[in-house]
């Protein structure tokens, strides 16, 4: 009954071993009853909790996203408005906020947009001509459409010199931030896995930032980045930048947030990848050294293939968590200057604070949609592929 | 059928609670895979039955179905008078020793041994006494406070046995319990296990892939292949009278030698020599077998057929001569002072009465015999 | 003897970058590795050092420009500590106790419920019917729509909804079966982690509001537990799968019930996994901000809220007080990490990530 393949289904609950002459006690009967219902007993609490606190709010949020919510005495007034909340974000008056400001595409914008479109179409064409399944096609279609949308969004804003909205900012945090974190985390893990002294010190020291609340990290980095009173202000002054306000420039502000985020999250990547490196059997590396491989060859040919499955999964987790970024921009810049550092979570939070629940839910749903499409694409196109190859 | 086992059931030790264990038409399907096919075995009270077969033959699955750890697709398991086919393992009154011993690493030896009584709610004092008794039975009473990781392989094995006997179950199931021990210890534990089973007189089913273990331990051996029972009999029976090619080849170390050929004009061609058979149909593909100890290496031309010496190995008590004949490699046991050169041409002689003939196509034993020309 | 050729003298580059023997590091490589690691240590530790000295600076010291070394650059003062622990001790203590209660209880709940579910998924075969699940979701959507858009009383909707669900699952789902497997349940549970808190927090807020549970410990505990449940299930599922089944089967043959097996055999064997999971969930709960911001207003405020509150007022950010609060917040986590440390080095996170 408890093993996966083999279970005795037709149980005889309440059967008492033959040598037991007394009638079963109440406690015995209760334990037997519990054992008989262990199947349900073990999994029901988790299912119920997820249903109440995850699925139920998810559906409720969907309804709110399609409604206009007004506060009224003693509750809410909810009116169904269809896709209005979404269209306002994507095409309407909030477009600048969510997607960015579109004027005209510059030449660079056209180049990026067209080459990205061509690449995506080519990828779809390749898929259709080589292998085909309905589910695979639909999945790739969704990935392609979202990819096209994002490509055009960046082409129209970033590559044409226009400010972009919270979607662009979030994607910037996720891809640039996670990319940087991954490279540094991987490098540190590799260095730390070398036969050196003081490994335990580095391991502990590097782990500390993960223990600090993101709010605290935000404040600490505000202190660090202060050009007049912070620890680096002598350096700023020496460069003649003491009047420079990093928070007033969109790009420096974003980069500071990424630095803070990296400071906090590199430990997570580091600690797991370090375990992965240490888990590689010593024999493999020594055999490589006997064969005369250089350090780089050993990393490239022996360590990396062993670590890669772990690395891919760590990245997936990090990307999932990365989409939720809200504390750091909120504390460090309050989303400013303007909306330059506002992530989608923060956007939704601000909308909620201004009591626009419908918009808030719509943005949250758009975030969910983008997260799911990107993570599922990442999982199906990279993780599954890689795993198959190994 | 079982001459050997009577000795166990007639001994006046704890035979009173030994139970008969009947396995009737037991089947196991994993999807399309038929793991156990119509297994039919009657295990007598107090009998030591060994399920023997190569890995993947379904013997462990069969044992797990008897234990109740695996669902039975069809068939019945009956213990004594009681049908336990669909009874939960804990109500089957069975103890099992696993290949890994399954000792709880976080519990001491005493706690491990006492666990079956603890979960059934036996009071502490009674339990402690039982633990002492069981530990004494396996000579582990001085190590009760140790943890499994502090024990040697043989000691862990004893703890696992003590945990099995503490409940006085009506049957023991053992799944390759000796295979994690080194060769020397295995021989010793084998003897100890056999003595203990004899003393307790508990019906035992023992799974192994090691035919020497099977031969030495069993009252009866059940040989399985691909989920099917091949032969059931005393060790002597299955050794001297195998019913098919598989059993013949599986029992014995080194295994039986085989020579294949097609019967024409009452004989099969072996190199340049002919071996005459009687009782088989003309044109059948036959496999002739003889055991290494039933043959002799003689001067070339003086045996039944000639072969080239491949190697000769001194094992101490005897010399194993391996000869190559066409594609087949044959091994012959010779006295320890026997000397022979590599690549020397020799003759092979064997007793016609100690040779076996099988049909090559289905492996069944033929009623034919080898005759002297 | 004499025909053994002499080893040629190695070049400087070779001597720097060729390891002297296998398993050792070349001196040049060693220098590079240590430089990089020490540089990163400085990057990691300097902000923490700054936090520590800021907590003993006066407002004047902070505002007058950067001072680096206590007693040399500036005279340390414990005014911020005093203010927080003597003057405002009631607020600090309340938030601290709240945070402790909430994160300990939420962690315990998440680890207990999550590891039970993970164990069940690792060892029992479930076959839920997809049709039943679809009926459930449709019924729930319709019910919520009725409550929100038409203002029907939620108690009525609940009763009617349960009735409708019961009827359809009896009528339809017993005939049409699309069985799902354990992997599907596992994926469903773990995938809940994709939900950003912002997606679900508004309905959760409304839900607790309607049962008058806003600003209570229980509300935050339940929410935190569910948010972290996917992590527990994911890590522990993998851990349970790595425990040999023999041990549980043996317990089962010896007459243990499933609950007893879980308690006596499985949990003690999973200490390493439980410790790592507990620490991770604990850190996440302890540091969580957004959900706490929604669900607590005064009574149940947690430490991160207190940190954020240091920004309030006309005086700007009270850097010194804020530093104190952040330092105080790190202490229990470090304590937990030390207590659980010996279990964690066994690479539990790694095991799950590999799967």
Chain-wise SSE layout:
The complex is a heterotrimer of chains A (390), B (373) and C (355).
Chain A: H1 26-36, H2 38-65, E1 67-72, E2 75-80, H3 84-90, H4 95-98, H5 107-130, H6 134-156, H7 166-192, H8 199-207, H9 214-224, H10 233-238, H11 250-278, H12 282-290, H13 295-322, H14 327-332, H15 344-353, H16 357-389
Antiparallel strand pairs in A: 1-2
Chain B: H1 6-10, E1 21-30, E2 33-43, E3 48-52, H2 59-67, E4 74-79, E5 82-83, E6 94-97, H3 109-119, H4 124-137, H5 153-165, E7 171-175, H6 183-200, E8 203-208, H7 211-217, E9 220-225, E10 228-233, H8 235-240, H9 245-250, E11 257-262, E12 267-270, E13 273-278, E14 285-290, E15 295-299, E16 305-314, E17 318-325, E18 328-335, E19 345-350, E20 355-359, E21 369-371
Parallel strand pairs in B: 3-8, 3-9, 6-7, 7-8
Antiparallel strand pairs in B: 1-2, 1-4, 4-5, 9-10, 11-14, 12-13, 13-21, 14-20, 15-19, 16-17, 16-19, 17-18
Helix pairs in contact in B: 3-4, 3-5, 4-5
Chain C: H1 12-17, H2 27-54, H3 59-63, H4 79-87, H5 89-123, H6 130-150, H7 154-173, H8 182-191, H9 197-210, H10 217-241, H11 245-253, H12 258-269, H13 271-287, H14 290-295, H15 303-309, H16 319-344, H17 348-354
Order of helices and strands of chain C: HHHHHHHHHHHHHHHHH
- Oligomeric state of the chains present here: heterotrimer
- CATH architecture descriptor of the largest domain in chain B: 3-Layer(aba) Sandwich
Report the structural category of chain C: mainly alpha
User: What's the number of structural domains of chain C?
Assistant: 4
Number of helices of chain B: 9
Q: In CATH terms, what is the architecture of the largest domain in chain C?
A: Orthogonal Bundle
Number of strands of chain B: 21
Radius of gyration of chain C: 28 Å
User: How many H/I helices of chain C?
Assistant: 17
- In whole angstroms, the N-to-C terminal distance of chain B is 35 Å
Structure description:
- The complex is a heterotrimer of chains A (390), B (373) and C (355).
- By secondary structure, chain A is mainly alpha-helical.
- Chain A has a single domain (92-389), classed as MetI-like fold (Orthogonal Bundle).
- Chain A has helices at residues 26-36, 38-65, 84-90, 95-98, 107-130, 134-156, 166-192, 199-207, 214-224, 233-238, 250-278, 282-290, 295-322, 327-332, 344-353, 357-389; strands at 67-72, 75-80.
- Chain A is globular, with a radius of gyration of 27 Å.
- Chain B has 373 residues and is an alpha+beta fold.
- Chain B folds into two domains: 6-244, P-loop containing nucleotide triphosphate hydrolases (Rossmann fold), CATH 3.40.50.300; 254-371, OB fold (Dihydrolipoamide Acetyltransferase, E2P).
- In chain B, 24% of the residues lie in helices and 34% in strands.
- Chain B contains nine helices and 21 strands.
- In chain B, the strands form five sheets. Chain B has a six-stranded mixed β-sheet with strand order 6-7-8-3-9-10, with helices on both faces. A five-stranded antiparallel β-sheet of chain B has the order 15-19-16-17-18, with no helix packed on it.
- The radius of gyration of chain B is 24 Å and the shape is elongated.
- The two termini of chain B are 35 Å apart.
- In chain C, helix 5 crosses helix 13, helix 11 packs antiparallel against helix 12 and helix 15 (303-309) packs antiparallel against helix 16 (319-344).
- The model of chain C has no long low-confidence stretch (mean pLDDT 85).
- At the B-C interface, strand 6 and helix 3 of B face helix 11 and helix 12 of C.
